[in-house]
Specification:
Number of helices: 4
CATH architecture: 2-Layer Sandwich
CATH superfamily: Nucleotide cyclase, GGDEF domain
Distance between the termini: 41 Å
Strand content: 25-35%
Number of domains: 1
Structural class: alpha+beta
Shape: globular
Radius of gyration: 15 Å
Amino acid sequence: MARRLAAILAADVVGYSKLMAEDEAGTLAALKRHRAELFDPEIAKRGGRIVKLMGDGVLVEFSSVVDAVECALAIQRALADENDKIKLRIGVNLGDVIIDGEDIYGDWRQRGRQIGGAGRARRHSHFGHGA
C-alpha cells in the first residue's frame, strides 16, 4: 500500500441537524453558495483536494500543513465576517495517509475530532477570549 504525508482538513457544520429541521431548503442553498463562493476557491488557492463530501462535512487533503491552516482560517474569518447562520468546526491533522485510488485512509479522523474539540473547549474558556 502506498503512503504519503498529508495535511487533512476536516470540517463539519455546527448544528446541522437543527438547521436542516428548521429550514432544509435555506440551509442547503446556503451550503451550496458557501461551497461555490468560499470553500472551493479557498481550497483551490492553496492546492487542496476535496477527498470526501458528506451531508454536513468535508475532508480536504493538502500537501502543506501551512496551506491547510491558512485555508481553515480564511474560511472561518469569511464566515465570521458574514455573520452567517452556517458555522463550521474545522480541525487539521498532519500525518501519514494510505492511498487507495482517489480515497485516503488514516487516523486523521480521530485527530481532527480531537483538535476540533480542543477549539470548542478553548473558545469557552477564559484563555480563549480574543483569540
